[in-house]
Structure formats: C-alpha cells, structure tokens
Write the structure tokens for this entry.
Amino acid sequence: MEVAAGGSGDEPVTPGGTRVRLDIGLFVLALLLACGCVFGGVLVVQQHRDDERTEAEQERYGDVLAAARHEVEAFINIDYRDAQESIDAVASGATGDFRKQYDSSSAGVVKLLRREQSVMDGEVLWAGVVNVDADSATVLAATTGTVANRSTKNQQVARYFRLKLDLQKVDDRWLTSNLEFVG
Amino acid sequence: MVESSNRPRGLGSRNPTGRPRKIAGQTVPVEKSVEESVEPPAPPEPRDSVEEQPSGGGGRGTTVALLVAIALLLAVGGLEIWYLNRDPTATVSEARPVVVGDATRGEAVDTAARSTEEILSTTYQDYDDQVEQAAAKMTDAFAEQYQQTSDGIRDRFIAQKTRLQVKAVGQSVVQASPSQVQALLFLNQYVQKEVDGEPTTDFAQYRALVTVVHTDHGWLVSDIDTQ
C-alpha cells in the first residue's frame, strides 16, 4: 500500500491526490514565473524606451553634423559665375538672422562676387559637435580649400577656415542661425 | 429513414458496440474493474465527472497545461533576461557618430583638450621634465613617437630659449565610442623665442583632430593630427 509521506500510514495516497498536489505545485510555480515575467516585461519596456531615446539622441549628432557640413560647404563653395545660385544654396540652409542677412544683402553680395571675380572652393575637413539638444546645437567645422579673386590675381590661394555654427531645428530640419569665424 | 427506424436499437452506427448509452446522472458499468478487481466496485459517480477526471485530481490535461504554461513563461523570461543583458552600444557610423552618453563624451573631449594643451605647451627651461610629463598623457605607441620628435628638436628649442604656449579656444566631438573619442580642437599657439639674439613673438591658429583612447589609466592621447 502507498503511504503518504509524513503520514501515519493509515491514509492511502490516491493517484488523484498526488496529481492535485502536483498541479498545485505547478500552478504556484507558474504563478511565480508569471509574476517574474510581468516584472521583467516592465523592465524590458523601460529599457526599450531608454534605448529608443538614446538612439534618437545619438542620431541627432549625425543629423546636426550632416546639416552643418552641408551649410559650410555651401558657404565655402562660391563662384561669381553662378553667384545667385551660390547665395541661394547658403540661404536654403539658413534661418533666423543669418537667413535675413543673406536675403537682405543678396543683391550686394552677388554684385561684389562678380566685381571681384571670386571663386571659393573647399570642403569640410573635420566637423564636431560642441553641444546639442532637442532643438538647438553648436558645431565647429574646420575647412580646407582655395580662393581666387582679383586681389590674388585670380590665382588659387590656400584658405583654411575655423567656423562655428549655431543650428536650430525648424520643421524637422536643422538650419543654421549663425555662422562665425573663430579667431 | 424507414430502414433506420426499423434497425434494432444498440446496433446503429452511433453505438456499434451495443453498450448502453451513457446518460449523465446514471451509473456507469465498469466492465474491467468488475471482472478483474476483487475489491468491491467503486461507488457510482456521475459520468461527466469520470470523463473529465479519468485519474482523479485536476486531471492530466490540467498538468499538461500547467507544464506548457511554465515552459512558455520560462521562454519569455529567458528572452527578457537576454534583452536586459545584451550590450546596447551601437557602433560608430556616419548616422550615429557619437554612441556614448554626455558624461563620457564630455570627459573624453575635456581630457583631449587639456592633454593637448599640456603636450604642446613647452618651455626651454624644463624641457625634459615637460616632455616626460606630456608622455604620461599618451599611449605608449604615441609617446614613443612624441619622444623621438622631442629629441629631434630639443637642442634648437633650448638654444632659442623657446616658450611655446598652446590654448584650446574651441572643442567639439567628431565621433565617440566607449573605447575611443575623436575631438576637433581649435588651437591658438603663442611662441616666444630668440632668433639671432633678438626676441621674437609669433602667433598661429590651427586645428587639431585629437584621438583619445580609454585605458585603465583613463583617457590617453593616441594621436594628434594638426592642420
């Protein structure tokens, strides 16, 4: 005769009783696991949100640098033969005072470029982010290139710039609100 | 319809064995137990109960369901543990040039700027000590390269009583990973020296791409590229 563990020996253990105890044990285990999974799920959701936020912040650096490089390259690639096009390229990536400055002096700049027969050619050597948040950023850019105009007797002269740009996010686009030379 | 109605009950297709129909609430004859067991037959139970719990307790179905649920929960838990313990650090790319937090980025860029200032600022008065101190801020490979350059200019540097002061007037991060950071620095350099007995002063502005790597001794300069 089967005897219940710890029992007096008088109580037979039926297969049904063993199954019930087994099921209760499994149920308790499943319940504990379910609680663990719910807790883990909460942590996973939190981690996932953190990851998404981190990813967005990291991609912001790439977006800001791409916009700054684009604007700087427009700024240092100017040809008096396509003067208006050159100015428009800079203006399209500008906003705020910087944009107003370009818009208001556009005619004068074009005239000056043509008179001086200015041709600036260059590229961004390095660019780095000073700081960035959700809607503004500051970027440094180092450029290399050449300039040729009447004063250089139309000979290409090496010209390196150290530039600082302030950018603002406007309608999902990073636009330059200020550009200055760093002395 | 006619044939079916004439067929003797108990021999139809719905009950080919001819056993009595099972009706809930009625006793169920258990042929095997009656024939083989010497014990008195079990007290009659409702048929429905016998079908749901063939071996008593919660039934095999319940046990299997619980085991399946436990297996699924273990799998879910395993996936959660994997997700929470995976390394979320992305690799540096054009789209994500900085894959570290602000604190790491700031510390690395500050270290790059301060170390570069100290490495490039030297005076003829304690040239050797300064070279040694500067080398401590570099990786071994870069320190060796720096030492060779320093040795090459040492005599002229001292003879001309050169004082070289470098100041970082701008600093930014070009790219950053947990192990390596590249910083763009705008440097202003002031040089005082004596040429042919005459004191001269020079000023230069240039740019430097400084690479620092993370080591057990903190961030160390592994390269300085100036233009």
